[in-house]
Design goal:
This protein is of the alpha+beta class. It has one domain: HIT-like (HIT family, subunit A). The chain is 28% helix and 20% strand. The chain is built from three helices and five strands, in the order H-E-E-E-H-E-E-H. It has a five-stranded antiparallel beta sheet with strand order 1-2-3-5-4. Strand 1 and strand 2 form a beta hairpin. 29% of the residues are buried.
């Protein structure tokens, strides 16, 4: 979809801090993070919600979700994390492209500062 910001990110037309990619999914740091490492996992193909994504692709997205969550857990060592998936504006969906949020939770850490994005992206992509 031409106007979807997530489709544009998936095609590399809009920059993002990519932490995972494969042939069907991509994961990147949220531009308005709730905590350090707040990451979005999306299918590369456009689907609006849980109600219209094919089951096979949903399984692929969930596998990527698990890989990314494991990496966040290993690299950032949060005290826990939330997995969130919203459907429809009333439920909090602001981008109409199916996606999951991984929101790491830290007991004693302050909220994330946007300038730390590059540091987090490097940690999560194992770049030095």
């Amino acid at each position: 979809m031409k106007t979807c910001i997530f489709c544009q990110i998936a095609k590399g037309k809009i920059p993002a801090q990519i932490v995972h990619r494969d042939d069907k999914t991509i994961a990147f740091l949220d531009s308005q993070p709730k905590s350090a490492g707040h990451t979005l996992v999306i299918p590369r193909e456009h689907f609006t919600s849980l109600l219209d994504i094919p089951a096979g692709l949903l399984a692929d997205v969930v596998q990527s979700l698990q890989k990314v969550a494991q990496n966040i857990n290993k690299q950032l060592k949060p005290d826990g994390f939330n997995i969130c998936q919203n459907n429809g504006a009333f439920a909090g969906q602001t981008i109409n492209h199916f996606h999951f949020h991984i929101i790491p939770r830290y007991q004693n850490h302050p909220p994330i500062n946007k300038k730390d994005f590059l540091v987090l992206a490097k940690k999560l992509t194992n770049k030095k």
